[in-house]
Amino acid sequence: MRVLVIGCTHAGTAAVKNMKKLHPDAEVIVYERNDNVSFLSCGIALHVGGVVKQADDLFYSSPEELKKLGVTMKMKHEVLDIDTDAKKVQVRDIESDMIMEDSFDKLVMATGSSPIIPPITGVGLQNIQLAKNYHQAKEIIQKAEKATNIAVIGAGYIGVELVEAFEAYGKHVTFIEGADRVLNKYLDTQFTEIVEQELSEHGVKLALNETVEQFVGDAEGRVQKVITSEATYEADLVLLCVGFKPQTDLLKGKLDMLPNGALIVNDYMQTSHPDIYGAGDSCAVFYNPAKTHAYIPLATNAVRMGTLVAQNIAGPKIKYRGTQGTSGLKLYDLNMASTGITEANAFFFGLNVKTITIDEAYRPDFMPTAENVKLKLVYEAETLRLVGAQILSKVDLTQAMNTLSACIQQNMTIEDLAFVDFFFQPHYNQPWNYLNKAALQALEQERDVAVLV
Ligand SMILES: Cc1cc2nc3c(=O)[nH]c(=O)nc-3n(C[C@H](O)[C@H](O)[C@H](O)COP(=O)(O)OP(=O)(O)OC[C@H]3O[C@@H](n4cnc5c(N)ncnc54)[C@H](O)[C@@H]3O)c2cc1C
Questions:
Q1: Does the pTM exceed 0.85?
Q2: Of 186, 182, 187, 152, which Cα lies nearest the Cα of 167?
Q3: Confidence of residue 55 (pLDDT cuts 50, 70, 90)
């Protein structure tokens, strides 16, 4: 079996490592246009903030390690074309500029995503940076050293992490977002207003509800100002964090995709071509809360899907379980995480939801400290099925969202959750764990409705 893998960051690395374990006789060839594998972009902000001292520490594998496993590593090779009928690819060796052809029995699309560059006047100016790969990370570090005013555009979790890191580095930071809230895909207003307050208290200038209209440069072509719909901000470094798009142009019009180009794969990671598999940011995921395909680019999805490609490459073996898009974030001394759908976004998935929020001490008051935990459950109004949850506390209780992710994956209702057996120990929680308690309150809420009806 000759398997070509295009792209080798998280999905590709997981696929080839497992493939060599499960199918040692398979001929596995990787084409990667970059000069490295397995870079953890999630460490960029930690590097900027000084937590991770060396960008080189942000790799967990290398071309050499994969070669030792028996994988043929074609680094700095870019795949230019895929003939899905003839099962052939055209590849360019970036260093020699030579074009060659290769053929496959199975092909793995692990081509990932690229940051979206919005078509704004002046976007090509120097010091307007993207934050995705190793080389971009190094450029950011180098340019941040000399920068005084930094504008971060896009208030998703990547933007928030970078803002905190630049602020901690002593820079003046302006945080620009077109929507009226930060983190609006992950958290509802009760949570995002706390995050916004925390950012403001640390001196970050929040520019919400503002759309960037133009970047203005100096005589040397370096960015100097950002002009939004509301104001003009000084900026000698700009970070664009406005989202990602799947890199699947090679298969446009040839295979089934979402409108944004994300490949649709079945339970065994096969695309609409049975010999072409997909994994990671190049693909849509099956989003369990909404029971539909969605684009949720996360490393967690990438490593799971890459591993499943290897399991299923020689025939269906292990089924993919879908995702809840669970994610966590630490901002100063706030720990937050979310899973599934928020109340605000339920509408976009055609879901009619109800919610319950509790805000109380996570453990008994007799303990030396007992911080509050704010926990919100989102459930389907008709079925009481849990579809989302959010948590925020000064104590790290983020793992609770992994517990609820499992509950959503298993289609549990708030009644199921109310009576799950969770331990009690005063160091960690109350006799009724906060997850049980929120679900019990949701049930109470439903009972009230029933009584009223
Ligand atoms: C700043 C930042 C922070 C993040 N933090 C988190 C986090 O905390 N948790 C989390 O779960 N996720 C996080 N993510 C998301 C995560 O990084 C991505 O989901 C993950 O990188 C996807 O992995 P992938 O292998 O599918 O694709 P990618 O990482 O996009 O890699 C695709 C690879 O394919 C190669 N390639 C593409 N086209 C070709 C071609 N034609 N020929 C040859 N090679 C090609 C590219 O060079 C690249 O190496 C973060 C992302 C960023 C940018």
A1: yes
A2: 152
A3: confident
